[in-house]
Amino acid sequence: MTNRQSALALASSLSFLTGLDESATQAILAAAESRRIAAKQNITTGGDKAAHLFLVRKGQVHYYHLTKRGESVLLAYLAPGDVIGLVTLLKSPSPYMATAEADSDCELLAWEHSVIRKLVSDYPLLGENGLHLALGYLRNYIDRHIGLVTKTAEERLAETLLKLGEQAGKVQADGIEIHATNDQLGELADISPFTASRVLNNWVGSGILSKGRGRIVLHSPEALLIS
Question: Does domain 153-224 have CATH number 1.10.10.10?
Fold first, then answer.
């Protein structure tokens, strides 16, 4: 595959580049710096100056907030196609709102603040795409809060598993593989690790899924919709 074909294939899978023509896509990608981040290393740190916008190409990222008491609150899992540091689209960006840590070895595209600002000026649709992404993330947080008020622990955990499966799951012969611990699933579903473990064990007994250390395989995702 040529560099041109590779760039177009990448663009077709990225919401951040939706609607941009070939020349714009190539210019935007050419302005990016490729980075490799090892697992457990920070990509951004909450409170630091927002100096780069990052786009996840490969790997999985934990996005979390560290409280004043040093407690980690998991906000989201980020997967290929997700963008970190959308505040850099602003002329005077606020600091990074949260910390992004590589959960696995990751490949990223990075644009310096001045570079991404110039690209947004040259290609206004890029800024619109960034706004759509930001609103999508906000929608997820709103849905999560509404679920906390209106849904049971089982429903919230089921939705969390289905979302992770769609976002970052790997299709295997026996189902969809998800890498997450009970603690992480509990945080994303806003339930305790004990409750997460209890509900997961019930689903194991029902044959809906199987689990190992930090690994879950959904054998019957559709069953979670009616469990």
Answer: yes
| 190-201 pLDDT per residue, tens | 999 899 999 999
What is the C-alpha separation between 219 and 196, in angstroms, rounded?
A: 18
**Using one digit for the tens of pLDDT, what is the confidence trace for 148-176?**
899 999 999 999 999 888 888 888 888 89
Q: How far apart are CA 60 and CA 191, in angstroms?
A: 22
Cross-strand pairs, 69:
none
Tallying the residues shown for the chain, one arrives at: 227
The CATH number of domain 3-147 is 2.60.120.10: yes
For the chain, domain boundaries: 3-147, 153-224
Burial of 97 (0-12, 13-18, 19+ CB in 10 A): middle
**Cβ contact 63:84 at 8 Å:** yes
The CA R_g of the chain, rounded to the nearest whole Å, is: 19
Tokens of 77: 């899992």
Region of residue 100 (left: phi > 0; alpha: psi -120 to 50; beta: else): beta
The answer for residues whose C-beta is within 8 angstroms of residue 155's C-beta and 6 or more apart is 147
d(C-alpha 124, C-alpha 140), whole Å:
25
Say if residue 68 is exposed, middle or buried (CB neighbours under 10 Å; 0-12, 13-18, 19+): exposed
* Other CB atoms within 10 A of residue 15 CB: 14
pTM, whole model, 2 decimals?
Answer: 0.84
Tokens linked to 112: 């310096």
The residue behind tokens 């598993």 is: 161
